[in-house]
Amino acid sequence: MRNLELWAGVEPTVSRVGNEYLDQLALSGFDRRLSDLDRLAGLGITAMRFPLLWERTAPQGVAQADWRWADMRLSRLAQLGVEPVVGLVHHGSGPRQTHLLDPGFVEGLKAYARAVAERYPHVTAYTPVNEPLTTARFSALYGHWYPHARDEQSFWKALMHQLRATVLAMREIRQVNPQARLIQTEDLGHVASTPGLRYQADFENERRWLSFDLLLGRVDEGHPLWSYLRWAGASEREVLWFAEHPCPPDILGLNAYVTSERFLDERVHLYPPHLHGGNGRDVYVDVEAVRVQGEPIGGPTARLREAHARYGLPLAVTEVHLGCTREEQLRWLLDTWQGAQRVRAEGADVRAVTAWAALGAFEWNSLLTRREGHYESGLWDVRAPQPRPTALAHLARQLASGQPPSHPVLAGPGWWRREERFLFTPYGPVQTEPAAGKPLLITGATGTLGRALARACELRGLPFHLLSRQELDIADSRSVTAALREYDPWALLNTAGYVRVDDAEDDPRNDRENARGPQVLAEACAAAGVQLVTFSSDLVFDGRKGAPYVESDTPGPLNAYGRSKRAAEEAVLSLLPGALVVRTSAFFGPWDPYNFAAYVVRELRAGRTVRAATDQIVSPTYVPDLTCAVLDLLIDGEGGVWHLANRGAVSWADFARQVAAVSGLDPARVEGVPTSTLGQRATRPAYSALGSERGWLMPDLEDALHRWSHQAEVTGEERLAAD
Description:
The strands form nine sheets. This protein has an eight-stranded parallel barrel with strand order 1-4-5-6-7-9-13-14, surrounded by seven helices. Strands 20-19-21-22-23-28 form a six-stranded parallel beta sheet, sandwiched between helices. A four-stranded mixed beta sheet has the order 8-10-12-11. It is elongated and about 90 Å long. Strand 21, helix 17 (about 510-530) and strand 22 (about 530-535) form a beta-alpha-beta unit. It contains 22 helices and 30 strands. By secondary structure, the chain is α/β, with parallel strands linked by helices. The chain has two domains: about 5-420, Glycosidases (TIM Barrel); about 440-720, Rossmann fold (3-Layer(aba) Sandwich), CATH 3.40.50.720. Helix 12 (about 300-310) runs parallel beside helix 13 (about 325-345).
């Protein structure tokens, strides 16, 4: 048997909600960068799911199709030796003049498929319609996507039209190229339930196979769903057409996500009201199984086994992606790859695993129904001048070449196996796995950032040790060396330091902690082969630029604190060029009662006026966003100087007013004053807002403030309960 292959694909959906289209290829920039194909080929892939989409290529009909974009890219793939698996419709509804409930969809896609085959006769692998059952559910049963129907009859028509179009498209393609193969994809989930809802779970577990069964010609009067289809409005002729015109897939492409497995529970009192629903017979909730079911989900491994047992056909996992933190993305890809290897060893013909959403995905957190700028990075992060490779790209190369995966975070289980996965009362015996692997060391146990990073590591299943000065004195080389020897970390995050900007003007501890300490850490980490992250400040700049500072701008600190931070940057990067130096600014967060935002709320609630500078422009930084970005960059192996702050340049006074507004307080009680009236000893730059030329990973300030306000309320309630 041939080796397991690595395939790849970019998220290409052209979704329609109402009359608004959302084009993933435009959002990710794949439609503009020919070089992305070289990036993908560099992974060692053998095939790419290539989006030659009907909506994009021939929106006005085949006669007016524009093939230039596809011509250039298919030619480049041929030069690179990568086979294209051409997709014609991907969660779409076709050009504007048709839709999934329109019989014209079938003839239109048939004609487009013929034109594609004639234009590119060398192409031998096709997916005319991606995930037809899933698309029919989301478009015609749940109403999320156009044409927004919500009934069983529309669901059948949408599914029938997509599958008829698939059969007829393949017929047209094979008239041009008899060797053309059908690689049919489907999101293959699984439904578990309480005993009382077993009947509903059994129905949904049978329905998930329907697109494959129809294409294989298996659906007739003896099929378990015959009665359902007839009840849903399908005529005998419509259903039996597929038995008379079978179009067996050459490869079944299975897409299985963490959210693909569901749990049905009639104990609705255990769940918030917005989850309550039902089927007209029983009231119940339909939730992610991973959040409530005691045993772990089966994932792609279980789905491969089921598909092999049911069909015995060649299989591939045609999408592997997780919108999550970096270590969880790595763990999900490796879990899937290793699961495919196990199923192959059991005798199934599993051909490939597909690293999906290689350039990330937009707005999938709302199933493409809203435009909020939400982005999930993939093997590359496109929030940069050019796509930035993440740790996923390195793992993908290792898998493709047969090298053993090497990243230390892979030793731990994914969140779908850990205890923190539960949002609701577990059903059945609880099975979990603890965090594992080499730890991170975090200095600064008493500081805001150190505690926040420790909290983030705990949530992310990253083993860590949060050390106080007594346990690790960053300016004492013997103490540092001893700690590295004792804990054997793979990386060290230094959050220790002197933070009182005005007192730093004449306190020798500033230089010891902020300049000498990071230098000692860099020397020790370089000797031990340990990655290092240390933090710097916007106060390394003099403020004369009058626009957000980027990483390559020349520092010119105005005060002792800024000078010590600049000295640390230079020393660390000289001793350890691969170290990650993060410049940031003006922390605020939900767990620290002493930050400026918390101070504003406390003062205003007490009826006092808040005085804040109008002539200092900064970039406030939400600590949970900062910790997430830092850990992702560390796992990606990034080094050098990075600017991390929430997008937005505001004066301290305007920031205070924004804090008041999101907290339901009166912004008019914030008094804007000149810095000269505040009695600050250390000179501050008039403008120290941060921008980035390397990649903007942090959300907007407005978004961060709304999340801070909600989380601060929750945290405050927890404190009151504890008191």
